[in-house]
């Protein structure tokens, strides 16, 4: 074989290799390009221009069962607070009445009590006593907060329940409750105001 023949064969093989390699690379590039195009289009969201129907529009249906359950629960909590206020205010008034009766009896000289009983009665209705203004109003607020789980949106609802409970206590008492109960009423209302203010809720109007 001549040198020219070997050279020609080598050149032909190189040309073939180059051509094949170029072809493969081109195909790969085309495939990659096609893949990239597909992937890019896969993540592009084209909103529908069809104004006739919106198949993606959601329809909201009220859950009446849940609504009724929540309403019943709220009513139960309100009733609980009303009942508690009625009982607390009634017992506070009774404790106050009993204590003041003791002083009346003592003044009249017709009735006497031992020093311990007298001291306990005075303590019970003192400002910070169990039936005093501070502790009684605190118990009412704590119970109202516990009923609502501290939900600020329920503050006014609990305030109204307290008012109704107080009115029921007055009816049961047979008229206006003693001064200590009226002072407790004012203290509870002030504490409701403080809760509302801390929650950024306006109580005006």
What this model shows, in words?
Helix 2 runs antiparallel to helix 4. 19% of the residues are buried. This protein has helices at residues 3-43, 64-108, 115-124, 133-148, 155-173, 179-198. With 205 residues, the protein is mainly α. The chain is built from 6 helices and no strands. The termini are far apart.
Number of strands: 0
Looking at the structure, what is the overall shape? elongated
Estimate the helix proportion, in percent: over 70%
Q: What does the main sheet amount to? A: none
What Rg is obtained from the alpha carbons, in whole angstroms? Answer: 42 Å
Calculate the terminal CA-CA distance, rounded to whole Å. Answer: 114 Å
Query: What is the ordering of alpha helices and beta strands?
Result: HHHHHH
Identify low-pLDDT runs. 1-48
Mean pLDDT: 73
Number of separate helices: 6
Give the amount of beta strand, in percent: under 5%
The structural class is mainly alpha
Q: What is the gist of this entry?
A:
This protein is mostly helical and 205 residues long. It contains 6 helices and no strands. It has helices spanning 3-43, 64-108, 115-124, 133-148, 155-173, 179-198.
